[in-house]
Design a protein that fits this description.
The protein is an alpha/beta fold. It contains seven helices and ten strands. The strands form two sheets. Strands 2-1-3-4-5 form a five-stranded parallel beta sheet, sandwiched between helices. Strands 7-6-10-9-8 form a five-stranded antiparallel beta sheet.
């Protein structure tokens, strides 16, 4: 990350920032400051207009003045939190009284409070950091969804499956494996074959004798020798 809060591998042009202020002079100054930045900027003169824009466009970040006619900044960001909880929320205000800061954090669920007149680099760094946060939370949500799906696939496979790490420790089991009583620890008769597969990265087949019938275990290496793990597929003979 650069000293200005910028992530070198993040495309900021994918993001949209909304500025809300009823002062035309402030809006013009912000427009001038943002003209060279990668992200897209939009501007609203009040809370109602901002919420209408947010129904039409996905904004990664909202930066709002505190004192505005009608809906103030905290009321606006409270509504943003309720309707668009992923959006990063910042108060930019000339009123730095303690109660304003506390109200902003407690009621508006504000991520950051900046005082007017702003320092240009601090404001730009705040925006970079806010967009980073939005991006990373999106990435995390996507990965969690992928993990949930992969877990559902794992447990709905029509055969038992075990996953063993590079140290020979059982790390993953699915529901069919647990139904066969194989979910707690690696069966002793698989310990040696698994060690061989880890070392050679060559698959091995093992027959597991059970009182209710024999099972066939196919030990498959992960990666090149030495393997990073072993996937064991178990089916009835």
């Amino acid at each position: 990350m650069c000293s200005n809060g910028k992530l070198e591998d993040l495309d900021y042009s994918d993001h949209h920032v909304l500025f809300v202020d009823d002062d035309a002079g402030v809006t013009i100054a912000l427009q001038h400051l943002m003209i060279e930045e990668d992200w897209e900027s939009s501007f609203a003169s009040g809370g109602e207009e901002a919420l209408e824009l947010m129904e039409e466009t996905e904004f990664s970040m909202v930066i709002s003045d505190y004192r505005m006619p009608g809906m103030n900044g905290v009321e606006l960001l409270r509504a943003v939190h309720q309707r668009h909880p992923k959006t990063v929320r910042v108060i930019l205000s000339g009123y730095a009284e303690a109660y304003v800061v506390v109200e902003s954090i407690n009621e508006g669920h504000v991520d950051r409070f900046l005082a007017k007149p702003w320092e240009e680099q601090e404001l730009l760094t705040t925006i970079h950091e806010g967009l980073n946060k939005y991006h990373l939370e999106e990435v995390l949500a996507k990965r969690n969804a992928e993990l949930k799906f992969a877990n559902e696939v794992l447990h709905n496979l029509p055969f038992a499956l075990l996953g063993v790490d590079a140290h020979g420790q059982l790390m993953v089991t699915n529901e069919p494996a647990c139904a066969l009583g194989l979910g707690d620890s690696l069966p002793t008769e698989l310990a040696a074959p698994v060690a061989q597969v880890l070392e050679s990265a060559e698959p091995r087949s093992v027959k597991l004798e059970r009182t209710d019938g024999a099972l066939h275990a196919e030990c498959l290496p992960m990666g090149q020798a030495p393997a990073s793990g072993v996937i064991i597929v178990i089916k009835s003979c």
